Amino acid sequence: MNVRQSFLFNTIFALCVNFVIKPVWVFGIDRTVQNELGGDAYGIYFAIFNFTYLFQILLDFGLQNYNQTEIATDNSRFAKLFPGMLSAKLVLTIFYLILTIAAGIILGYAAHSFFPWLILNQILLSFNIFMRSNISAHRLFIKDSFLSVLDKFLMIIGCSFMLIPSIRFIPLTVDNFVWIQTASLAATTLICIYYNLQLSSSFEWKFDIPLFKKIVIQAIPFALIYFLMTIFYRVDTVMIEQLLGDKGAREASIYAQSYRIMESVNNIGYIVSGVLLPLFAFQLGKKENIHQILKQGYNIMFTVIIPIVVGGVFYAKDIIHTLYPGEDPTYSGEIFTILLLNFIPVGLLYVLGPLLTAKRLFRIMIPSLTIASIMNVVVNLVLIPKYGAYGAAITTFGTQIFMLTIYWLATYFLFQLNINWKTIARSASYILLAIAMNYGMKSTNIFWLYGLAITGFSSLLISLLLKIISKETLSLKIGD
Questions:
Q1: What is the pLDDT of residues 230-261, one digit of tens each?
Q2: Which of 266, 315, 355, 441 would you label with 306, given CA atoms 20 to 30 Å apart?
Q3: Are 332 and 320 a contacting pair, CB within 8 Å?
Q4: d(CA 387, CA 398)
Q5: SS3 sequence, 316-338?
């Protein structure tokens, strides 16, 4: 078997590439910038960053998932769709600029010098992700994996000249931090454009109004899904900063400490979903059974989720104390624990969500996401003023549990799944063994990083012994 056609190989390769680069960015660069800038300065930056992200709906408008499912189903559609998709992206960018700048002026964010550069960064990031969707739709997952970390790799190099004393020549400021991100994203986007142009030589470069209208209309359900997901993933930080008055920036900074770790962990789910979505679309387009891909996607995700979550919960205070020595590890550790538990429903949603998207089950996704978004905002309005960042963490966890329940029930009934008691027993055993190993390791007072490494490697061996990762997982292909 060609190893490049292996589902497991491509998934593990993508995970490994991201594990090498993104932790360095998250914990080596972003965390250091926060610690050196101070909580208030970074808290404002983080709140405005999430604010500009809230309006990503106007940049994406569901085009990425629509584009990916269309082209993954039939790669020959790329040459016709690409010029029209680019035209749509450019028009949407204008609307994004108008709305974000107007809202930023109203909230007072436009007064910060780095505000327009964060807007530009969101635009570049959106074009970057869109063009990568064409590459993954062609099932070129190795190339997509490199592009997925290229911007962070360039940011690490750039920020090193701002943070490492021996080579420092760039002053550490929020503005310089944002400008380095801008340069890195711009370079990555140019490379993505180059690779997209290699996918076909028969583009019709014209502004096709009928095609533009067709794309926008068909992308509306994807846009609604993207918008609703953005609300309950990003609105909490903005609400913390806005609802807590003088304490807002500080609480947002504390929340950012744990959210940064959670987002880094969530990136695992994003990577797996990036492989699963085009595969589901490809299989459904050929009218083939998706049960095997769904099962193995769950197995891989579950194998990764459990040791990270269980180990993180056991060592929550130790992790926070090591990464943020000046902070209260008790309060920050409580927030971190809740956000880390959040990865269980989120990780499984990264398996079920791509299937429902590929099948275009919008009648289920949009109403459930609408309810979840409303729940998120309403509960945050109650809990944030009382409990600060901890209240936002609780709200996020509850929302994701609700979404997982809805998506699992929809998948179970619509795709006629059977309850596999062996899988349930193996999963339960895996969780219990992970808890037991971490309990034993914690009692030895070993340094938390070593403890996580030992239990993580042991968990991988256990997943093989329990046949969660099986011969079926090893032999599954990504398509012809």
A1: 777 777 877 887 888 778 878 887 887 787 77
A2: 355
A3: yes
A4: 15
A5: HHHHHHHHCCCCCHHHHHHHHHH
